[in-house]
């Protein structure tokens, strides 16, 4: 009887050990908290603004128009024969999902130090909720994109069409989320020690966009193989190209590129989670 | 449901718990500054980021906030944790509630831990009271269904019913605290950890909280860990008490003994003062009459309940003949602020060359809870101003603890004296 009781401990608190120390079962138990965080992120973001949630749509719309003016109107970059407006909107929507994932998870520890210093909950709930918030924003933007898609398909038949890659889109999006989460929590883990990374990340993400075929198609780089190789090293390149292939029927896809992206995503996510699990237990002592 | 005493179920088991903190700078700067420091160290140069005048010997030394704690807590206990500042109480609670990991040792737990190291953790000002109940509940580990089942009880306990759908930024601080406590108190967690949360809110609500916590431990069979500097709430709530000192557990057992031991670890453990080799406050003092010794009689520590007379014995030697020697005490609070002086008392006549042993008692009943010290002033009355005979430059420390539970905790800004109740002269209906 007494022995039975000794076996029934539900939690054991130990010093930081091992390289992977995240309790996924516990994370699942806190799913309501994740959902609460998502709701909070979404409502707090647009509280005390004039246009409120309309910003979710205005943001990509204005960006797309500006891209259209600069890169098609002025720089005259071709867009693979797809209406340039849809080309930019597709690329930008996918990129925004990725950028939001990184930007919002990067300050997890520093921004929540107050709460985390007073109560325990699985720390990973915060970045996960940020990623889900980004996904929610993406879903709304995707609906807007589809409206424009229908408009172009009706007014200019044949200019755009879905391809079989559409079936692959969910996998692509999952990859984008995982990659964004991975990079974001790596940065957030390092910012507990080095605050300047938080400043660098906003700027870095902006630069990263130009290394990704968002405002230009991959096919434009065919003449300069060195550039093409460099851009191909960016795991996001293949994801954006594949997404455009799925939605618009234009893009450069290579199986090796997709495999490379998937491997990169898994490696970065694994590194991020390991780093995160090492930091989360003691970050209160350094932050 | 009768619980038998031999059937005690351990719910918390702490073994060899240690927590080490590094002293001095722990990075936290910028990446470039860290690289700079590292590069300077590699070349054997002076660290350009070191604050000038920093004692580098201290660099990298460590501090044990917890230094080997072993403890078993059983189901249904209300365990008080006391100790002076820096004894490791807060660190212990932080490790127990998994905010930071221990350096060595382990804690085994049975059930969920709801920690209230601060009230209103995770409250968002923009959200309404109701939304915050769900949010706070979720942070403390409840599912939405669990909060749903208890929300009416929580709202009722919080006394915030009519404002529950108002954003909490419009709440008074009292309402905020009430709501926060209500959420934590209604959690289904088996273990509750509290750090002086009751120091806020009005008296009536504080008593309600204490009552609720007693119920939680006594009737619902949950386990409560409570840290406080307020001995009367410890007395009221706890069934067992531990004392921490310098990261170690120095006592584990009944509440009264624990409080007595805690008092010993404070500045008031000296009961005997040898005054033969100490300075005097006035140059002329100590020649015609010399106080050799002072002791608190019949005590191992100079901690007194406010209904317990302080008995003091002084040994003094007269070097000439006195018709009457007078004595008074100048009372100060431990921060040095003056509290008052006692009325002079005549110790009687004295013969030259003789040593006298005098006992007197002082009633601390008018003093609020806290630590005090006094200066002893022996003087001779004269027609003009009193002439100082002896005034040792020593602070004699003692502490007063409150026994009256109806008295609120003594806050700053009230002075140090509590007067006897006002006399009711007349009261009748018009």
How many independent structural domains of chain A? 1
Helicity level of chain B: 10-25%
Quote the beta fraction of chain B: 25-35%
Q: What is the CA–CA distance across the termini of chain B?
A: 54 Å
Reading the helices and strands of chain B in chain order gives EHEEHEEHHHEHEHEEHEEEEEEEEEEE
DSSP summary, beta strand count of chain B: 20
Give a written overview of the molecule.
The complex is a heterodimer of chains A (287) and B (430). With 287 residues, chain A is an all-alpha fold. Chain A has one domain. Chain A is built from 14 helices and one strand; from the N terminus they run αβααααααααααααα. Chain A has helices spanning 2-7, 24-29, 31-45, 55-74, 84-105, 108-111, 113-116, 125-155, 169-191, 196-210, 225-232, 235-248, 255-280, 283-286; one strand at residues 11-13. In chain A, helix 8 (125-155) packs antiparallel against helix 9, helix 9 (169-191) runs antiparallel to helix 12 (235-248) and helix 9 (169-191) runs parallel beside helix 13 (255-280). Chain A is globular and about 65 Å long. Chain B has 430 residues and is α+β, with helices and mostly antiparallel strands. Chain B folds into two domains: 5-27 and 37-265, P-loop containing nucleotide triphosphate hydrolases (Rossmann fold); 272-401, Coagulation Factor XIII, Chain A, domain 1, CATH 2.70.50. Chain B is built from eight helices and 20 strands. In chain B, strands 12, 14, 15, 16, 18, 19 and 20 form a seven-stranded mixed β-sheet that branches. A six-stranded mixed β-sheet of chain B has the order 5-6-7-3-8-9, with helices on both faces. In chain B, strands 10-11-13-17 form a four-stranded antiparallel β-sheet, with no helix packed on it. In chain B, helix 3 (129-139) packs across helix 4 (144-158) and helix 3 crosses helix 5. Chain B is globular, with a radius of gyration of 28 Å. Residues 1-5, 24-28 and 53-59 of chain B have low confidence and may be disordered. Chains A and B meet through strand 1, helix 3 and helix 14 of A and strand 1, helix 1, helix 2, strand 4 and helix 3 of B.
């Amino acid at each position: 009887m007494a022995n039975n009781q000794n076996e029934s401990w539900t939690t054991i608190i130990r010093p930081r050990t091992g390289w992977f120390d995240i309790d996924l079962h516990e994370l699942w138990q806190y799913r309501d908290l994740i959902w609460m965080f998502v709701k909070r992120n979404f409502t707090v973001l647009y509280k005390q603004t004039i246009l409120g949630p309309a910003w979710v749509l205005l943001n990509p719309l204005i960006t797309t128009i500006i891209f259209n003016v600069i890169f098609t109107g002025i720089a005259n970059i071709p867009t693979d024969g797809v209406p340039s407006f849809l080309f930019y909107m597709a690329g930008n929507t996918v990129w925004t999902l990725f950028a939001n994932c990184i930007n919002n998870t990067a300050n997890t520890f520093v921004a929540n130090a107050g709460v985390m210093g007073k109560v325990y909950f699985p720390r990973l709930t915060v970045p996960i909720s940020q990623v889900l918030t980004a996904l929610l924003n993406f879903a709304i933007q995707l609906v807007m994109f589809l409206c424009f898609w229908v408009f172009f398909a009706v007014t200019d038949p044949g200019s755009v069409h879905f391809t079989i890659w559409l079936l692959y889109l969910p996998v692509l999006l999952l990859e984008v989320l995982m990659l964004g989460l991975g990079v974001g929590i790596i940065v957030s883990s390092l910012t507990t020690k080095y605050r300047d990374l938080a400043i660098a990340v906003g700027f870095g993400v902006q630069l990263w966009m130009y290394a990704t075929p968002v405002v230009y198609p991959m096919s434009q780089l065919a003449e300069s193989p060195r550039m093409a190789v460099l851009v191909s090293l960016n795991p996001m390149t293949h994801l954006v190209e594949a997404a455009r292939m799925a939605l618009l029927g234009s893009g450069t896809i290579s199986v090796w590129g997709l495999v490379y992206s998937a491997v990169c995503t898994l490696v970065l996510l694994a590194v991020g989670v390991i780093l995160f699990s090492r930091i989360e237990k003691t970050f209160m002592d350094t932050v | 449901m009768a619980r038998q005493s031999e059937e005690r179920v351990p719910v918390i088991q702490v073994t060899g718990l240690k927590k080490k903190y590094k002293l001095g700078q722990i990075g936290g700067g910028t990446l470039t500054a860290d690289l700079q420091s590292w590069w300077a160290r590699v070349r054997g140069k002076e660290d350009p980021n070191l604050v000038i005048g920093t004692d580098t010997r201290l660099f990298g030394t460590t501090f044990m906030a917890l230094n080997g704690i072993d403890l078993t807590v059983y189901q249904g206990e209300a365990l008080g944790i006391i100790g002076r500042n820096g004894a490791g109480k807060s660190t212990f609670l932080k490790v127990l509630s998994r905010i930071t990991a221990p350096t060595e040792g382990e804690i085994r737990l049975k059930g969920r831990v709801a920690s209230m190291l601060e009230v209103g953790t995770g409250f968002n000002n923009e959200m309404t009271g109701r939304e915050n109940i769900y949010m706070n509940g979720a942070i403390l580990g409840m599912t939405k269904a669990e909060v749903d089942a208890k929300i009416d009880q929580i709202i009722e306990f919080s006394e915030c019913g009519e404002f529950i759908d108002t954003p909490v930024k419009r709440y008074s601080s009292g309402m905020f605290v009430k709501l926060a406590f209500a959420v934590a108190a209604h959690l289904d967690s088996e273990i509750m950890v509290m750090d002086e949360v009751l120091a806020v809110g009005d008296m009536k609500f504080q008593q309600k909280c204490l009552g609720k916590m007693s119920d939680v431990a006594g009737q619902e069979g949950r386990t409560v860990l409570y840290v406080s500097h307020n001995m009367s709430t410890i007395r009221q709530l706890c069934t067992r008490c531990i004392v921490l000192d310098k990261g170690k557990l120095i006592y584990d057992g009944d509440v009264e003994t624990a409080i007595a031991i805690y008092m010993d670890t404070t500045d008031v453990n000296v009961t005997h003062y040898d005054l033969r080799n100490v300075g005097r406050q006035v140059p002329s003092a100590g020649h015609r009459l010399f106080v050799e010794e002072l002791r608190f009689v019949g005590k191992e520590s100079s901690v007194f309940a406010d209904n317990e007379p302080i008995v003091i014995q002084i040994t003094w030697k007269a070097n000439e003949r006195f018709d009457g020697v007078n004595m008074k005490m100048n009372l100060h609070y431990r921060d040095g602020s003056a509290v008052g002086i006692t009325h002079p008392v005549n110790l009687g006549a004295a013969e030259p060359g003789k040593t006298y042993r005098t006992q007197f008692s002082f009633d601390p009943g008018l003093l609020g809870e806290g630590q005090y010290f006094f200066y002893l002033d022996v003087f001779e009355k004269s027609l003009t101003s009193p002439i100082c005979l002896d005034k040792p430059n020593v602070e004699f420390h003692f502490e007063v603890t409150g026994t009256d539970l109806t008295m609120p905790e003594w806050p700053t800004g009230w002075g140090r004296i509590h007067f006897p109740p006002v006399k009711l002269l007349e009261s009748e209906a018009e």
